[in-house]
Amino acid sequence: MVQDAHTSRWQRGLTACGFHLPTLVFALRTALAGFVALAVAYALGLEHPHWAAMSAWASSQPMREHLLSRGIYRFAGSVVGVAFAVALVLMAQGSLWVLAVGLALWGGLCAFLGNLQRGYMVYGCMLAGYSAAMVVLLHHGGAEEVWPFAGDRMLTVVTGVLAALCISWCFAPRRKAAVLIAQSRQALAAVLDACVARLRGHSAPPGLDNASLLVRLAEVEELLELYPEGSRTARNTSKAMHWQQHQALELVYHLGQTAQDSTAVTDALDPVWAFAAIPDDAGASPAALADALQALAQVLRQAPAADSAAAHPVDAALRQAIAACEALVERIQADGHAVQPGLNALYLLMQEMRRAVRAEQLDLGGPARAGTAWVDRRVDPLPLHRDWVGAREAAIRAGGTLLFFGLLWAWTGWSLIAFGMLGLSVMLLVFSAFENPNRTMAFVLRGQLIGAALALLCQWLVWPWAQSGWQMVWMLLPFALLGGLVFAHKRTAAGAMDTNMAMLILLAPVFPYAQDMGKSATMALAVVSGPALAWLVYRCIYPTNAQRRMRTLAQMMVAEVPALAQRMVEEGKPGLLPSLPASMAVAPTGFWQAQLHHRLLRLVRWADKTQHPRRATLPELGLALRATQSTMLQLQQWRRCTILVTPQLRRTERRAELALRRTAQWGAAHSLEAQAAAGQQAAQAWQALAAQPGLPALLATEAQRVARRYLPELCAARRDLQVQ
């Protein structure tokens, strides 16, 4: 009891001083791993032992799986970067101009590829870029002497990664799969509740409207970003959840397709949720399905657990709901009616949930891990969003800046420019994928100033007393622990990683120590010049923040509609072409739907983070995008399968081509006036197409919706994006 009282008193005291206790434990553990890596590298006789400490800091992660994945990507990125640097140095043969151009091209390529990746793959790509910069910019001597330097770089990386793994692995907790699984099931339960209300003919209850459902699914999507790192089981769970998210969004789309429809459409022409002709007195009825879904939603809200007793209710409720859905489908088909699209989406969602539940139980360490239940481990990856615009801008920004300073370095031959370029390359690569790199640079600059000040204190006041190289190493221990304290304090936590990196890159223990206050101060200024210059670059060249990323993503989504129309125009009448060039081929239906859903979730998350004033309209935007592209694909399918043997059908075909052409022209218009005129012409063309008697009734109804509702919404969204 006395020991607990003392422990509690220490915890309260540290918290009162501004330290976050879990972060403090992690930071001190990482600082110890960094010092051990430094000592081991020094004992091995490596030329740059402080690089090992930097690798230990960069590799350490709070969770065990992330620790392993981060270490692997750091090693792999270092191998690729060092290999390129060696090849570049050997090719340059001492020419600084060749080194400058090659390094700029490599930095631009790594920035481009890194911004297209997810998870720690981003870090691996960026590391390959600045690892090459470290070898090229810090290497002195002939080209044949680059091999020992490159080997020193690789050995320090391996030493740092192994030190972080050996020390942190014993204390780092495992990933908590139950947290993500519980949140995912809560979101799915909300979607099922909205479906139950629709089946019973009620309006959506408060908190279950489309906007709220999208926010819940987007929160789950954000947690999936780093979840699969370091575990094959987690990767399978992540892929299954992605497909589950996709089918849930498909159901949300059908839930909202007619809820806000202002056009007068009968159930015969709009059989999305038309169950009026089916009585509820039998077992195969909408009421029975609603009861089964409600029971499933209640089970999903229970806390997930690994034991079979907790897994059985979910599986049993899913089986019962699937059976009720199949019974209703069988009855609808027996009466000679087509299955409603909303019912089909619900059935597909439950099938994906069934596969996801199996993967989740394996991830939780349940009976599937012991082999008592079969689990499909071959889950297809979902086509996810790639930020091509941001990647291109990051490549131009990083490559262009490194080229400018590299040519300046080649012209002057000043080594301090090369040293400053090293920090600049790290800033322009690693932070280019951040939400707001311009704002982040302010914290990074503050952190590096603190690190440079600590390094100068050690160089000016402590190291002059050292009598041996090992004394210099041991004198670094208090500064390493001080870096951990900076990492855990609430006032210095932002940018604390850069505090340790700047401090360690300046503290190279070389005995006998030759004190040169002017040189050490100049080197410290060269280090902190990196974030200062990067702040200026991020501010002037393609300024990036959360609002701009959200606007770029929305513009990419809206641009898909005229791009699809243009591909269809280029394709012509599909039935008349024996083969279609790959460049003109339209993407498979499942691909574009899944990618649109993933982009929509990211857009919702960006809008929620930035508190965008029009974020409540995002469900309508997603509905318009999904419905318009779906209608265009259905129209193209009709054109492909219809033989134009009558004047009426040929006139309908001409109207269809005109509607697609006008939609493509709307996308090509740039000014607001031209867009408004082109959008009005496109809506008129779709309206004229809907009035053609040769078009099937359901397709005509969808074309009418495009003309009256979806296309005007897309025009308004595009106009708002340009005005912002």
Please provide a written account of the structure:
It is a single chain. With 724 residues, the chain is mostly helical. It contains 26 helices and no strands. The protein has helices at 2-16, 21-43, 49-59, 64-92, 96-114, 121-138, 146-168, 177-199, 210-223, 232-257, 286-300, 308-334, 341-363, 388-412, 415-430, 437-462, 469-475, 477-488, 496-506, 517-540, 546-571, 589-610, 618-641, 647-668, 672-690, 697-723. Helix 10 (232-257) packs antiparallel against helix 13 (341-363). The protein starts with a helix and ends with a helix. The relative contact order is 0.09.
Order of helices and strands: HHHHHHHHHHHHHHHHHHHHHHHHHH
Helical proportion?
A: over 70%
Largest sheet: none
Q: Average pLDDT, to the nearest integer?
A: 82
- Number of β-strand runs: 0
Spans of at least 5 consecutive residues whose pLDDT stays below 50 are 261-272, 368-378, 576-589
Strand percentage: under 5%
Give the distance, in angstroms, between the N- and C-terminal Cα atoms.
Answer: 62 Å
Helix segment tally:
26
The backbone outline, from C-alpha atoms, is globular
Overall structural class, as computed from helix and strand content, comes to mainly alpha
Features:
globular, mainly alpha, 26 helices, 724 residues, single chain
Question: How do the strands and helices of this protein lay out in sequence?
Answer:
Elements: H1 2-16, H2 21-43, H3 49-59, H4 64-92, H5 96-114, H6 121-138, H7 146-168, H8 177-199, H9 210-223, H10 232-257, H11 286-300, H12 308-334, H13 341-363, H14 388-412, H15 415-430, H16 437-462, H17 469-475, H18 477-488, H19 496-506, H20 517-540, H21 546-571, H22 589-610, H23 618-641, H24 647-668, H25 672-690, H26 697-723
Helix pairs in contact: 2-3, 2-7, 2-18, 3-7, 3-19, 4-5, 4-6, 4-7, 5-6, 5-14, 5-15, 6-15, 8-9, 8-10, 8-11, 9-10, 9-22, 10-13, 10-22, 11-12, 12-13, 14-15, 15-20, 16-19, 16-20, 18-19, 21-22, 21-23, 21-24, 21-26, 22-23, 23-26, 24-25, 25-26
